[in-house]
Amino acid sequence: MIDQMPDSPALIAAREADLQMEKCLREGTNFLIEAGAGAGKTYSLIEALKFLLDHEGPRLRRGSQKIACITYTNVATAVIGRRIDNNPLVFVETVHAFCWSLVKSFQPAVRQVISESPAWQEKIAAAGGTIDGHAVEYDLGFRRIRDNVVMISHDDVLTLAGALLPKEKFQKLVAARYPYILIDEYQDTDSEMMDAFKVNLFGREGGPQFGLFGDHWQQIYDKTCGHVEHPQLTAIGKGANFRSSTAVVGVLNRMRPELPQAVADENLVGSAVAFLTNTWVGDRREGGHWKGDLPADAAHTYLQAFKGYLEAEHGWDFAPANTKVLMLTHNVLAAEQGYSQIAGLFKYTDDFIKLQDDYMAFFGESVEPACQAYAARRYGDFYRLMGTAVPVPSRRAEKLSIASAIDGLIELRTTGTIGDVIDHIQGNAYLRLPDKVAKRERDALIWEGEGDPPDRIQIARGLREIPYREIIALLQFIEGNTPFATKHSVKGDEFENVLVVLGRGWNKYDFGTYLEWVANRGAVPANKQAAFERNRNLLYVACSRPKTRLALLFTQALSDTAVRTLKTWFGADMVEEFTP
Predict the structure, then answer these.
(1) Is the pLDDT of residue 5 over 50?
(2) Staple 548 to which of 182, 270, 305, 341, CB 3.0 to 4.6 Å?
(3) For residue 242, what is the DSSP state?
(4) Lowest mean pLDDT among 114-128, 194-208, 498-512, 551-565
(5) Last residue of a domain, which of 462, 477, 492?
(6) Are 225 and 285 within one domain?
(7) Which domain holds residue 45?
C-alpha cells in the first residue's frame, strides 16, 4: 500500500514513524505506535515482525524462542499470519490463547487460583468440594467440571495470567519463551491484563521487550485499557492517512489536532458534510435516552429522502459494495432491520444488542449457532451449543424422533413466535432451556402481584408474542450481514462512501451533549470524562471509515453550541439543515 505512493505526504510521515520504531527495536526499548485511522498500523506491525525475524531469527531458533504477536480477534490473527507466511518463529494468537500458552504448565497454581475464585465455588461444591488432582483445560470457553477435568472460561484465562504474573518464576518463563511481545490494537486489551503487563513486565530487567500498536481514540469496547502510558514506553505518533480523501482527513484533523494526519493523495478531494433536522415541526420523542429525537416514522422519512438527495445531488451510489450506512441511533435502525418489536420491549438497548438479557443470550449464543451447526451437519456442535448431552439412539424410531424435534425447531424459527420456539424446546426431551430462562418463564406464568409487573416479567411475557424472525433479523444485524452497521461490525473496515445517522436510543451515547462538551472543553464534569471519551471514540471511528465521501445526518435536535462544533470541524458552509 505505502510503496504505491512514493512521494506522498502520508508516506513521508509514515517513514519517520517507522524509523523511530526501528530505532527502538535495535536498542531494546519498549514502544507504542499511536496510529490514527488509516495510518497503516498493521503495516508497521508487519514491518516490526520482519525486522525481528531478519535480525533475531537465528538466535530465536537456537533458543527455541518465539516472537509473541497478540491480537484482539481471530480474523486479525489470520491476516497477520498470512502476511508473514505463517513463520513458525512468530506465535500469532489472541490474548486468551497467549495467556493460556503460559499458564497451562502451572497446573497446581492454576487450581489454587480457581479454588479461591467466587465464580467457581458453586461448581466446585457440586463436584465434591475440591478440584485437587483435576486437570485444568481451556478449549471452548465454558466453565465445567467433569471427569476430573476443569474446563475454564475465556475470562478465567485472563484472571489466571494476571494472578501468576507477579511471580518471578512466571515472569522468567514469559521472557524466556517470548523475548519480544507485540500487541496489535493495544487499546482493546483487557484493562486488568494490560495493568498486569505494565506492573510486572514493562521495564523488567531481562525482558521481554514490548511493542504496542493501535489508537486509543478507537477504543470502543467495554473493559478495555484504552490509552496506555508508562515511563518505560516510548510513544511514537504515526501522522499519516492512506485511506481517506483530503476533505475527510481535514475533518479528522480538526477533530483531533494533537495527531494531525498527512494525506496520501492530495488530488483526491472528496467531500465531508453534516446535515441537521432542527427545523422539523412536530413533537420529538421524550423520556430517558430517547429525548430530543425524531419519531421513528419521521426519522425513516428523513433517511430515505436524504439517501435520495445524496444520490441525485452528490453522485452517491448506495450499492452495498460502495456505500455503508452506519446507524449510531436505534430510532431508525430497528424499523429498517426488522426487529422493531424487540427494540420497543426493552428499556435498555444493550440488553438486546449486546445479548445481555438471558433470553437474548440464549437465542444469540445457543439456538441460532446450534441451528447453523445442524444445517452444516456438525451434530456434536448442535448438542453442545444447546447444552444437552449427545443422545445415543438405539432404534430407528428414536433417531426419527430426534430429527423431528430439531426439524420442528428450525421450522418454528421462521413461522412461529418466540413463545412457540420456547414451548417447543421445553416440551422436547432432546432439547433444553437454560435454567435462567426456564425460571423466568415460570415466574412470568405465576406472577400475580399488584401494579405493573417488574421489567423482567414484562419482557418474558412480551417476547412470547413477537415473531421469532425478529430474533434472526436482529442477529443478522449484529453480525454485520446487512447493508447497515453499528460500531463493532465496521471497526477496521473502509468503504468508498459512508453515511452516518446519529440520534438517540443508545444507553451510553448522546452526541448532542458530546458536541457541546467539545465546544466547552473545560466544562466536562469530572464524572463524565468516560462518557466524553466513549462518544468521542465512536464518532471518530464512524467518521474515519470512508475513502472518498462522508455525510452525517442528525435525527436528534442539536443546540447552537453543538452546531458550532460541527461547523468548526466541517466548515460553516458544510453544515446545513435538511428538509425531506
Answers:
(1) no
(2) 270
(3) S
(4) 498-512
(5) 477
(6) no
(7) 2-96+168-241
Mean pLDDT of 444-458: 87
> Both 22 and 38 in a single domain?
yes
Angle, helix 168-177 to helix 95-103, in steps of 10 degrees: 120
Place of cell 452517491: 316
3-state DSSP helix/strand/coil percent for the chain, to nearest 5? 50, 15, 35
> Among positive and negative, which fits the CA dihedral 334, 339, 342, 344?
positive
- Give the 3-state DSSP-derived string for 129-161, with helices as H, strands as E and coil as C: CCCCCCEEECCCCCCEEECCEEECCHHHHHHHH
| Sign of torsion over alpha carbons 254, 517, 575, 538 | positive
Same domain, 50 and 34: yes
- The amino acid sitting at 348 is Y
Q: What gap in Å lies between CA 229 and CA 450, rounded to an integer?
A: 54
pLDDT, one tens digit per residue, over 306-347 is 999 999 999 999 988 889 888 887 656 666 667 878 887 887
What is the C-alpha to C-alpha distance for residues 88 and 515, in angstroms, rounded to an integer?
Answer: 48
Band of the pLDDT at 481, cuts 50, 70, 90? very low
Scanning 152-245, the segments in alpha helix (DSSP H) are 154-164, 168-177, 191-200
Q: Give me the CATH number covering residue 85.
A: 3.40.50.300
Asked whether the beta carbons of 36 and 238 are under 8 A apart, the reply is yes
According to DSSP, the residues that pair with 342 across neighbouring strands are none
CATH number reported for the structural domain that contains residue 504 in this entry: 3.40.50
pLDDT one-digit tens code per residue, 347-391: 777 788 778 899 999 999 889 988 988 888 888 888 788 876 555
pTM assigned to the model = 0.78
Asked if 393 and 449 sit in the same domain, the reply is: yes
Which of these, 135, 503, 547, lies nearest to 324 by C-alpha position? 547
What CA–CA distance (Å, rounded) separates 540 from 376? Answer: 39
Q: Using the CB atoms, write b or e for 60-95: b if 16+ within 10 Å.
A: beeeebbbbbbbbeeebbebbbebbeeeebbbbbbb
The torsion angles phi and psi of 204, rounded to 5 degrees, stand at -70, 130
pLDDT at 394 (0 to 100): 61
